[in-house]
């Protein structure tokens, strides 16, 4: 009799010890293909609790501020489904991109699970080069760079006069009309005044493009010691 009771006790203890939530995702990766820079992408990842205890989601974090995530619930009962809605803002990206969202839970086997969004972002408006980096310069020397603004889209784009965030930087556009498939030149010039050790700022070009309302180029120079 004692042996039987001991066996029953061991079975009960084993069952209690084995009871746990289990996070199982329908898919971990989503390839969104090619989108246009500025598109707002949304995708919903689905997962379920395949365990026999309540699954508790303690934290959700994204790889950068461009990606947001919204949970359907933080407590998922055994056998229930949950959803993680991902939102990605492609405004500041182009080319191949991968963004991840990591979910932390009380699943003892998988305390962290990462979901990925990846694909290609086509820039309809782009600049060559993407920044002005004059490097180390002599105080008072004239600095100058020509930037090419290219329209790879199917529609004409109107530009507004460019401006700089630093008084040491001057900008001039060759034209305010940027036809589809065409390009214009942006002349960026400046000088490092006596008494200053660096130039730092941005050149901003407002546009009529619905998804790229402005082009923003960093500009920098440093006094050569």
* CATH superfamily descriptor of the largest domain: Immunoglobulins
Q: What is the number of E strands?
A: 19
Low-pLDDT stretches are: none
Output mean pLDDT. Answer: 90
Helix fraction, binned, reads under 10%
CATH architecture of the largest domain: Sandwich
Strand content: over 45%
Alpha-carbon distance between the termini? 91 Å
Radius of gyration: 27 Å
Strand order of the largest sheet: 2-9-8-4-6
Helix and strand succession? Answer: HEEEEEEEEEEEEEEEEEEE
The multimeric state of the shown protein is single chain
Structural class: mainly beta
Q: Counting H and I runs of at least 4 residues, what is the number of helices? A: 1
Q: How many domains comprise the coordinates?
A: 2
Please write the CATH class name of the largest domain.
Mainly Beta
Question: What overall form do the CA principal axes indicate?
Answer: elongated
CATH topology of the largest domain: Immunoglobulin-like
Question: Which key features would you list for this structure?
Answer:
5-stranded mixed β-sheet, Immunoglobulin-like, mainly beta, 2 domains, elongated, 56% strand, 1 helix, 225 residues
Short synopsis of the structure:
This protein has 225 residues and is mainly beta. It has 2 domains: 21-122, Immunoglobulins (Immunoglobulin-like, Sandwich), CATH 2.60.40; 125-223, Immunoglobulin-like (Sandwich), CATH 2.60.40.
């Amino acid at each position: 009799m004692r042996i039987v009771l001991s066996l029953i006790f061991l079975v009960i203890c084993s069952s209690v010890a084995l009871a746990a939530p289990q996070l199982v995702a329908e898919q971990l990766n989503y390839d969104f293909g090619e989108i246009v820079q500025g598109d707002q992408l949304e995708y919903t990842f689905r997962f379920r609790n395949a365990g026999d205890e309540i699954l508790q989601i303690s934290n959700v974090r994204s790889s950068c501020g461009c990606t947001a995530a919204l949970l359907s619930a933080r407590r998922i009962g055994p056998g229930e489904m949950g959803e993680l809605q991902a939102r990605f803002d492609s405004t500041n990206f182009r080319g191949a991109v991968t963004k991840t969202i990591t979910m932390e839970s009380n699943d003892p086997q998988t305390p962290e699970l990462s979901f990925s969004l990846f694909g290609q972002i086509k820039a309809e408006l782009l600049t060559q080069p993407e920044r002005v980096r004059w490097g180390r310069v002599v105080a008072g020397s004239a600095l100058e760079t020509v930037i090419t603004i290219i329209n790879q889209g199917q529609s004409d784009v109107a530009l507004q006069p460019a401006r700089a965030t630093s008084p040491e930087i001057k900008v001039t556009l060759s034209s305010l009309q940027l036809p589809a498939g065409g390009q214009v030149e942006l002349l960026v010039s400046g000088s490092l005044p006596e008494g200053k050790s660096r130039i730092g700022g941005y050149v901003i070009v407002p546009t009529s493009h619905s998804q790229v309302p402005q082009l923003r180029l960093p500009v920098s120079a440093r006094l050569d010691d």
